[in-house]
Amino acid sequence: MAFAQCDYVLYGKAFDIIKVSGDVDLESTDDIRNHLDRVTIYEIKSTSKEKVTADFRGYFFSLSTAELLVAQTLGDRYRFAFVNTRTRTHVDLALREVMARARGIYPTWSIQF
């Protein structure tokens, strides 16, 4: 609600976790809205493949339209955490950084009945 009240789009299925810096009462929409700069939204992309390097070069992943829209709307308040559960390495990137690293973008549609 706090994000919507500040004219930000935030779909519940477009993120996995939030990171809060400093004190924010997550039970209070008003407090979240007043401290929105302390809240970062994260989408986690994970793999357990050994061949994925520490910088995730060559890693292939999907990005939903909802994730893209929210990332564009929130800017640096929305981040991607790329995690290799086997090697315990991770990379934290904003959308602009993801796009700067992209070697290919393949548009697709996913449909659920």
Q: Briefly, what is this?
A:
The chain is α+β, with helices and mostly antiparallel strands and 113 residues long. The chain is built from four helices and four strands; from the N terminus they run H-E-H-E-H-E-E-H.
What attributes characterize this protein structure?
113 residues; alpha+beta; 4-stranded mixed beta sheet; 4 helices
Element layout with pairings:
Layout: H1 2-5, E1 17-20, H2 29-34, E2 39-47, H3 65-74, E3 78-84, E4 89-94, H4 95-101
Parallel strand pairs: 2-3
Antiparallel strand pairs: 1-2, 3-4
User: How do the SSEs run, as a string of H and E?
Assistant: HEHEHEEH
Strand % is 15-25%
How many β-strand runs?
A: 4
Give the N-terminus to C-terminus distance in angstroms.
28 Å
Helix amount, in percent? 10-25%
Query: What would you report as the Rg, rounded to the nearest angstrom?
Result: 15 Å
Sheet/helix structural class: alpha+beta
SS summary, helix count: 4
Low-confidence stretches: none
How are the strands of the largest sheet arranged? Answer: 1-2-3-4
The residue-averaged pLDDT reads 92
What would you call the shape?
A: globular
Largest sheet: 4 strands, mixed
